[in-house]
Amino acid sequence: MKRRSLYFIAPGQVEVREETCPSPAPHQVLVKTQISAISPGTEGLLFRGLFPEELALDATIGALAGDFSYPLKYGYASVGQVLTAGQAVDPVWEGRWVFAFHPHESHFVTDLDDLIPLPPEITPEQAVFAPNMETAVNFVMDGTPLIGERVVVFGQGIVGLLTTALLARFPLGNLISLDHYANRRQASLEVGAHASLAPEALVEREQIEAWLPGGADLTYECSGAPSALDQAISVTGFAGRVVIGSWYGKKRTELNLGGHFHRSRIRLISSQVSSVDPALSGRWTKVRRLALAWEMIRRIKPEGLITHQLPIEAAGQAYQLLDQSPEDAIQVIFTY
Description:
By secondary structure, this protein is an alpha/beta fold. The chain folds into two domains: 151 residues, Alpha-Beta Complex (Quinone Oxidoreductase, Chain A, domain 1); 140 residues, NAD(P)-binding Rossmann-like Domain (Rossmann fold). Helix content is 26%, strand content 26%. Strand 1 and strand 2 form a beta hairpin. The protein starts with a strand and ends with a strand. The mean pLDDT is 94.
């Protein structure tokens, strides 16, 4: 049978190709994708040619094994139904709704170990948020927010919004988000931020003190913009923590570490979802963390953050939208 697969073929160029889909081996299944979600941060780096060539695409996901080089398939949030089970697979799998960390394509063959059956009460439109919700859970775990703390989140793209939504469930003293785009600031208020501002509102020392007396206790940098890290440091108070959730790829930044940072004992924390903080690994595994992410999806119901559903044939339009008009989109979904 034929399938439609999305390829990144060069910076600024994607292509949907029709190709032959292999038949499942005895221990494999064939999945028909219903929807898949674009991850604007990581896929934006691929689209713009800013992915570091020396890194594997993702060493923890089998479907993304291999080094970076065009043309390539990418994506890691696919939801569909099992069409056919191999001879060694229990037929009960046929017709089951599943999630997979798999590139954007209409059909794929995979091992059962690479599939996650959709938990009860989780719809496909909710399930595509699993990777970003797990990332947001990881950010919160790494930041260890405390009761009454003043917390700031830079960037209200999809990961930033989910992080804000999780933090809103803590008894914080203040939760402020920052984003350039009005639609994201409005969404941030709707998921629980106490205030959502343009970054320019927290530049001068007087502005910071007015909103955050003494500075933030905990700051998250989720914007994907390297320049935001310097501002994130500047709004953080003495002995505060800055969790760097953004992945900048090849993008570089200059930090002013000779002033406020130098005497403030600020901690910079790298957070990345492929691992659990070693300090927690005695009790927390990736399986337990993903189970928590599913529960947070049930509670937060993030499907309201979907702004566009486009057929996979309109992939070029989708990436141009995110690249050229990010103020118009939050979560873009492909349909098949």
